[in-house]
Amino acid sequence: MITCRDLCFRYGEKTVLDYFNLTLPEEGITALSGPSGCGKTTLLRLIGGLQRADSGEILGVSPNEIAFLFQEDRLLPWRRVQQHITDVLPRNRRGEAGRWLAFAELEGEAKSLPGELSGGMARRLALARCAALGGKYLLLDEPFAGVDAERAVRMLQRLRDMGTPVLLASHQAQILAQADWVIKLDGPPLRVCSD
User: Fold this and answer.
1) Would you say 38 and 82 are in contact if contact means Cβ atoms under 8 Å apart?
2) Could you tell me the pLDDT band of residue 47, with boundaries at 50, 70 and 90?
C-alpha cells in the first residue's frame, strides 16, 4: 500500500501540494482524475522518486520498485520498435519481445523506427516498454493519449491481467470508466474532491 503523508511541494512561488494525504489501493487500476495543472503529474513524480517533496513522506514503495511512463514517449529515434522492448528486458527474457509487441498491438512493426509510427503507435510502444520493464507498481502519466478508445480499453485490460498495481493519470472518460478506483482531484494546491 502506498501512503502519502503530509506532502508539501512548491515550484518557485506556486504551492502544488500543501500537507497532502492519500492512501492508494494495493491492487488493481487506480486512476487520478482532475483538471490539467492541478498537480497529478507532480504527485506521480513524487511517488516515483523523480522529484523530492519539500516535506512529508511517501510510505510503502521505493523508486527502484516502480516502472514509470512519462507523458512524453521518450523513444530513441535510432532504435527499432522491437529493440525498445529488448533494451529493458534482462538477457534471459529477451525472447518475450513478441509478447510485448502483441500487448501493444504492434506485431507488424518490430523493425520500424519511431519516426515511422503514428502518435498513437508510439504511445503504445512507450507503454509496452514500461510494462515489460515491470516492477512492484506501474505509474503511468496519460498512458493512452492519442490511442483510440477501443484499443486503449483492450490494453488497459491487459495491464489488469498482469496483476501489478497500476496508478495512472488520465483525462479520458473511457479509461476512467474502466478503472477499479477513480480518485478525483483538484488544485493547486492538490486536494482530493469529496464528491
Assistant:
1) no
2) very high
